[in-house]
Known about the structure:
Blueprint: E1 2-8, E2 12-21, E3 24-34, H1 41-44, H2 49-68, E4 73-78, H3 80-84, H4 88-99, H5 108-121, E5 128-134, E6 139-145, E7 152-156, H6 160-167, H7 175-189, E8 202-205, H8 206-215, E9 222-223, H9 224-235, H10 239-245, H11 247-250, H12 257-271, E10 275-278, H13 283-293
Parallel strand pairs: 1-4, 5-8, 8-10
Antiparallel strand pairs: 1-2, 2-3, 5-6, 6-7, 9-10
Amino acid sequence: MRVCAIDVGTNTVNALVADVRDGGLHVLADEERFARLGQGVDAAGRLAPEAMDRVVDRLAAAKATADRLGADRIVIGATSASRDAANVADLQRRVRDELGLDYRVISGDDEARLSFLGALALLPAEPRAVVFDIGGGSTEIVAGERGEAPAFAQSLNVGTVRLTERHGAVPPASESVQAAVTAAVRRALAGIPGEVWARGPLVGTGSTSKVVARLAGSAGAVSREAVRSARQRVAGETPEALIALAPEIMTGRADVALVALLIVEAVMDAAGADAFVPSAGGLRHGLALDAARAV
Length: 295
């Protein structure tokens, strides 16, 4: 079955077109588009009209790719910003009327479960893992074994866009601002039982983990020291300087890069992990696998 799975996050719209066969994925297209749907949602609790315009535009582009590649089914999974917004029904109506698509808002638990499924799908050597997925509005922590329902899954309302807006943490940022962000993440992580972190190696999924790995200069496992060093560098730069240094990974996310690194540091500290393994798999891969199973 050929599936187009679209992850509508707080910062990006990620669209995957893949053939799902025997529980595996053959990827035909994997596209990332920036939309910043979560613009102002943490403070206002509503989606801005211009943010909805951007998402409809990005979804139209994703649908065009799906149609060109002959997708049998298009599924959307909208996450934190859509969950938090009082007016999300307006966006759902627009997507249905203008594009003929079902704009499905998934729960935090489903987001965690599907992110775990997608992460392990592209890490065949890992039979079990503790997966973290840092998005613009939330961070998911999931632990379990391949082929089984997660033993633990929790969605936390700490994400890169949310905390950057809340704490004014666009780089360059002072030590006090960074400390405030770290404290917020640690408070959110404090409710996770210690034994959860012992259930497997720490795996980072989603585009944030991929970018952190690039910033840390790591092709494989990313050490805690490499993350700390990257965070110190980013904290002293402006978004414009970061884009000039690495346009391929910083465009669209330079203003939230510092908070991304701070969240990863806090997760690694909570896990007592010296390193994490980045996975190219994520929510959209889990959505595709789940959609094929549901047929």
